[in-house]
Amino acid sequence: MSSTAQVYAHPSAIQEYFSGACLRPLFLQGDSLSVLTSFPSSTIDCCMTSPPYWGHREYKAAGIGQEDSFHDYVRSLCRILLEVKRVLKPTGSLWLNIGDSYESKQLLGIPWRVALHLTDQQGWILRNSVIWHKVKGGPDNAADKLRNVHEPVFHFAKSQKYYYDVDAIRSTPQTAKVINGAVVSATGVSGVRYKRQIELSTALSDSEKQAALLALEQMLLEIRARKLADFRMIIRGQQRTTHSDSEHVSGRAKELAERGFYFLRYHPDGSKPKDVWDIIPEDTQNRDGHYAPYPEDLCKIPILATCPPDGIVLDPFCGTGTTNLVAFRLGRKSVGIDISAEYLRSAQGRCHLLI
């Protein structure tokens, strides 16, 4: 491989990159469907992509997003994503950021049309529907609807057993503290308070109180030993159940009914990210005329969580290479495909700055 990212179009270059040690992104120019057919099966660990949206803008080269109807767009995109599924390893994941469109004042629901086709017709497993909250949205002059400030990011798995490193994406936890020998949670609730609630409870039997006190003491020992960052205790008659009071739909409600209490445990390495991401679209990343606001932060959680450190990331609509740039910074190999030679030259330049 050369010292800079280059555009390749030959299967031998793809095979060389997959088997080599070079982490610099491999960029391939051409139609995504055609290029992907030259890939061997089950070689990619993670696909993170944001395809051109239907009817939003004209890009530098013809391609997906400029079909005559949104039905044709959905079919074209799903054909490409079926090929993505083929090249993914059985443990692989697809992260798909896709925006919606209007036609004759009708919101078309394109993201969910695609998602349901992938699950119902192609057998993908939809694990999360993330809401990308853009914090600030673009101008919207329509006087008869709300502003659009979010887009979905779907996480699909190829199979039920897929790679996922949850510890790589945990946030710094709020931790309980030991004050004058008493454990006080990050929200200010102390073990002493829980103990008093148990002792004074009229909703617990004597045997349930004894079991609750023993379990609370064990929980406090785990906090002191730093095995947990924090905890909450839900006691019958004191706190209401989380999610649902129905024993038929909530295991916690059933546990509360049977035991009289349960705990919520907080991992010592922090909590998992939520499925609403507040990320400002970035439009000043040396894009050289690419107008799709695809921010770097949108790629970090998907790559860290679903691409192993020695894995390969794919973006079949890479544009100016944001996915590849983030993968490179995180120490992963990556392949970017785009139909536009101009965009790929920009992608090369962005990644070359880090060499």
Count of extended strands? 15
Average pLDDT works out at 85
**Rg calculated over all Cα atoms:** 25 Å
The fraction of residues in strands falls at 15-25%
Shape: elongated
CATH class of the largest domain: Alpha Beta
Which fold name fills CATH's third level, the topology of the largest domain?
A: Rossmann fold
The strand order across the widest sheet is 1-2-15-14-3-4-8-7-13
Quaternary class:
single chain
Q: Uncertain regions: pLDDT < 50 for 5+ in a row?
A: 1-6, 245-249, 285-291
Give the termini distance in whole angstroms. 14 Å
Keywords, please?
single chain, about 350 residues, 2 domains, nine-stranded mixed beta sheet, 10 helices, 15 strands, about 20% strand
Task: Write up this protein.
- The chain is α/β, with parallel strands linked by helices and 355 residues long.
- The chain has 2 domains: 7-169 and 272-352, Rossmann fold (3-Layer(aba) Sandwich), CATH 3.40.50; 177-266, no CATH class.
- It has 10 helices and 15 strands.
- The strands form 4 sheets. Strands 1-2-15-14-3-4-8-7-13 form a 9-stranded mixed beta sheet, sandwiched between helices.
- Strand 1, helix 1 (11-19) and strand 2 form a beta-alpha-beta unit.
- The longest helix has 19 residues, at 206-224.
Question: Gist?
Answer:
The protein is of the alpha/beta class.
Secondary structure layout plus pairing:
Layout: E1 7-8, H1 11-19, E2 26-29, H2 32-36, E3 44-49, H3 70-87, E4 88-97, E5 102-103, E6 106-107, H4 110-121, E7 125-133, E8 150-157, E9 177-179, E10 182-184, H5 191-199, H6 206-224, E11 230-235, H7 251-259, E12 261-266, E13 276-278, H8 297-306, E14 312-315, H9 322-329, E15 333-338, H10 341-352
